[in-house]
C-alpha cells in the first residue's frame, strides 16, 4: 500500500531560500553600517541572518534526514515510516483490499452492444433489435 508522508523537495527549496535570506541579512548589516544609519538598524540584519540560518538548518535537515518532516511524499509499503499515519491511527490495521472492479462490472446488468437495450441473463438474442448477443 502506498502512503503519503512528508517530502524532501519543499524543505530543500526552503533551505536554499534561507541561505539567500542570510546573504540578504549580511548585505543589510553592511549597508546599515556604511550608510550611517542609527546603530539599531544593523540589528534587523542580525535578526534576519539568525532566523535564516535556523530555517536553513531546519530545511536541509528535513531535505536530507532519514526521518524528516516537510510537505508530502508518496512511498511504497515498508519503504519508510509514515509519521502522519502513526499519529492518526497508532495501531491501525492495513486498509481492506480495494473491491474487485472487474468482477463487479461483469455482475452488472447486460446490455445489447447494438441497440443498448437491457439483455436478461441467458438471452441469446436481443429482444429489442433481434441481433445475436455476444457470449458471456
Ligand atoms: Zn439490441
β-strand amount: 5-15%
Decide which structural class fits the backbone.
Answer: mainly alpha
What is the distance, rounded to the nearest whole angstrom, between the alpha carbons of the first and last residues? Answer: 33 Å
Which small-molecule species are bound to the chains here?
A: zinc ion
Number of helices: 4
Largest sheet: 2 strands, antiparallel
Low-pLDDT ranges? 97-105
For the biggest β-sheet, the strand order reads 1-2
Mean pLDDT: 77
Please bin the fraction of helical residues: 40-55%
Could you tell me the number of beta strands?
Answer: 4
Rg over alpha carbons: 31 Å
Cα shape: rod-shaped
Question: Into how many domains do the coordinates divide?
Answer: 2
Q: What is the H/E order?
A: EHHEHHEE
Amino acid at each position: 500500500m502506498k502512503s503519503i508522508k512528508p517530502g524532501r523537495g519543499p524543505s530543500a527549496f526552503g533551505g536554499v531560500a534561507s541561505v539567500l535570506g542570510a546573504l540578504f541579512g549580511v548585505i543589510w548589516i553592511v549597508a546599515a553600517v556604511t550608510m550611517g544609519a542609527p546603530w539599531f538598524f544593523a540589528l534587523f540584519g542580525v535578526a534576519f541572518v539568525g532566523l535564516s540560518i535556523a530555517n536553513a538548518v531546519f530545511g536541509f535537515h528535513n531535505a536530507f534526514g532519514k526521518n524528516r518532516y516537510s510537505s508530502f511524499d508518496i512511498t511504497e509499503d515498508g519503504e519508510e515510516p509514515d509519521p502522519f499515519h502513526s499519529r492518526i491511527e497508532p495501531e491501525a490495521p492495513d486498509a481492506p483490499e480495494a473491491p474487485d472492479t472487474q468482477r463487479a462490472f461483469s455482475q452488472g446488468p447486460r446490455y445489447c452492444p447494438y441497440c443498448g437495450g437491457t439483455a436478461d441473463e441467458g438471452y441469446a438474442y436481443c429482444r429489442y433489435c433481434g441481433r445475436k448477443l455476444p457470449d458471456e
